[in-house]
Amino acid sequence: MELFWKHKAFSELTTEELYRILQLRVNIFVNEQQCFYPELDDKDFHCSHLWAEIDHEIIVYARLVPPSFSYPEPSIGRIVTNPSFRGNHYGKSLVEKAIALTYEKHGQTAIQIGAQTYLKKFYGCFGFEQVSEEYLDFGIPHIDMIKP
Length: 148
Fold this sequence. Notes:
It is built from 3 helices and 8 strands; from the N terminus they run E-H-E-E-E-H-E-H-E-E-E. By secondary structure, it is an alpha+beta fold. The longest helix is centred in the first third of the chain and has 18 residues, at about 15-30.
């Protein structure tokens, strides 16, 4: 199956796209991970949104955050894979595209992420390095990582 990639500013999203993005994020981060946190954090307005679809179903998604909203550096967040499509390496393609788009917009700069600790090795494959001690973010172990 071929992925159809989309990348849009918040103001360019259709109501259906926004609904499907938020539905996937809530289904994974709130329901699946049992993490009750403020998913709607006002950052979405300032971010661009990257996702891939198959037959209008969102397979993977990431939010590209400009500098100074989450960290001094640009950031990639809300990285998620639809559970029905896990194990197909779509997440790897998503992170590669997110990094490339971040460089395209901000130049060859450092990128910082707040990663769930168990994903340290996954993000390490893209050159991200741990730069903080482990901390709890709404009860889930996280670390800060930077791709220099």
